[in-house]
Structures are given as C-alpha cells and as structure tokens.
C-alpha cells in the first residue's frame, strides 16, 4: 500500500512507440520515486479523432523526424526498437481490448498488464510480429506468463460488450481530463529559469497566449497526482518536469 500520496496514471496504446519509452522509464522510477503507477490502456485513434488531431504519419516531414528520433531514443533509454516495414498498419483495437480485459480481471495490481503490454510492444516494434489475430495475442500472453486457460478466458472476455465499453470509457477519460494550462506553463518556467521570473507579468501574458485548459491529443498521456493535485504531461521526454512536480527533482537520476 502506497502512502506517499503520489499517483501516476499512464494512458497508452501499444501502437505508440513513445508510449513504450514512457512505460519503461516509469516502471524503472516506480520504486525510486515511491509512486503508485497505474496503467490505463486506451485506444489512440479514438484520442486522435476526438481531439481533432492528425496521425503523425500523415505529415511526411514529421514521419521522417520520428524515425530518426526513435533510433536515438531507443539507444538512450535502452529499449531496442526498430521501424516496422509498414507504419500505416496501426490497428491495435483487438490488442488493447485484450489488455483491457486483463486489467479488468487483474484487480489487485498491474503486474500481468505490465508484462503483456511489454510483449505486445516487443512484437510490434522489435520483432515486427502480428498483434491483431487471436493466435498472436495468445503467443504474447503465454510469453508474458499467462496460463493457456487464462489466455483463453481473456480472449473471450475481450470480445464482450463490457470490455469494449471499458476501452471506450478510458479513452474518453483521457479526452475529458483537463487541468489548468497556466499552472503547467508556470511550473515549466519555474524549472527552466530556476524560479527567477515575475509571476504577475507572466500571469497576464499567459491569459493571451495559452488556452485555459490542456486536453489530451495523443499518447503517452501521463497524469501525475500529488496529494490530490493533478498535472498532465504529453510525451516521453517530460521526466525532469514530472520529478520536479512530485518533489523528486534532486533524486532524478539518469534513466
């Protein structure tokens, strides 16, 4: 039972390689930061559509950058991944329903969800294996340590309406999660400039530059709660800010 008052929720889809990086780093920091890490499997296309965003693959320049960026990031974080031959094949609906069904069954923790999610990411981004067919999900589940009977049960459960609705609701939860944009930008400046700024001047400026609330527009989407106060982060490169918000900045370490 955690008593630090620090809860971190990771909204993710295994179609997102940046979510995999965030997932692995948060797992590494879980005990160092003394956080209650909660996995929130969701459906990225639902967030893209619901937020009015566009898939990164639709922008050739952005796609070229992402390929180069992921090569360096995978080396830096020690998470080997390789570009799939077909980046347009992003159908992870069955996979995310499978993980959602497992999460619903595993009420007393996320250990199996963690293992299965990691195996699905490996298949998608390291070995370039299918994650859409029942046989593929079975292989991933067995490799993650599930018994054949449990895998069969989870596969059946993943096709049920309650699980389909659960995945939709978690995806919608990410879209509806809003916090003050001013507080986030204010603390960003606080960290970047070592707390040297004029709050009154920035307060007036932020009203004209930034929208009043931040909304999820992609994954990884990370919600940090410290004693009931929430901050949100997008991407796999915000760990210094997260550490600062949670009071762990001096013990951040290097991934």
Automatic annotation (TrEMBL):
Gene3D superfamilies: Glutaredoxin
GO BP of this protein: glutathione metabolic process
Keywords noted in UniProt: Transferase
Record-level GO cellular component terms: mitochondrion; peroxisome
EC code: 2.5.1.18
Pfam families, A to Z: DSBA
Group of enzyme by EC: transferase
Residue ranges occupied by any DSBA-like thioredoxin domain in the UniProt entry: 8-179
Protein family: Belongs to the GST superfamily. Kappa family.
Protein name per the record: Glutathione S-transferase kappa 1
Organism: Cyprinus carpio
Lineage: Eukaryota, Metazoa, Chordata, Craniata, Vertebrata
Gene, per the UniProt record: LOC109083278
């Amino acid at each position: 039972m955690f008593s630090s008052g620090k809860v971190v929720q990771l909204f993710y889809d295994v179609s997102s390689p940046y979510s995999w990086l965030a997932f692995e780093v948060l797992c590494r920091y879980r005990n160092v930061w003394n956080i209650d890490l909660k996995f929130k499997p969701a459906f990225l296309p639902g967030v893209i559509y619901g937020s009015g965003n566009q898939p990164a693959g639709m922008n050739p320049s952005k796609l070229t950058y992402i390929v180069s960026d992921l090569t360096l990031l995978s080396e830096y974080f020690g998470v080997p991944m390789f570009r799939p031959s077909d980046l347009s094949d992003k159908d992870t609906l069955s996979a995310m329903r499978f993980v959602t069904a497992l999460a619903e069954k595993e009420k007393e923790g996320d250990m199996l969800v963690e293992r299965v999610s990691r195996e699905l990411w490996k298949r998608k981004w390291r070995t370039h294996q299918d994650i859409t067919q029942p046989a593929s999900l079975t292989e991933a589940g067995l490799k993650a340590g599930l018994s054949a009977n449990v895998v069969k049960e989870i596969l059946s459960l993943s096709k049920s309406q309650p699980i389909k609705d659960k995945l939709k609701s978690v995806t919608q939860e990410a879209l509806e999660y809003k916090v003050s944009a001013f507080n986030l930008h204010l603390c960003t400046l606080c960290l970047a400039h070592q707390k040297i700024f004029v709050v009154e001047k920035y307060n007036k400026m932020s009203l004209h530059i930034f929208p009043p609330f931040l909304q999820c527009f992609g994954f990884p989407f990370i919600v940090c709660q410290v004693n009931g106060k929430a901050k949100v982060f997008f991407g796999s490169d915000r760990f210094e800010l997260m550490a600062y918000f949670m009071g762990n900045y001096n013990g951040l370490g290097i991934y």
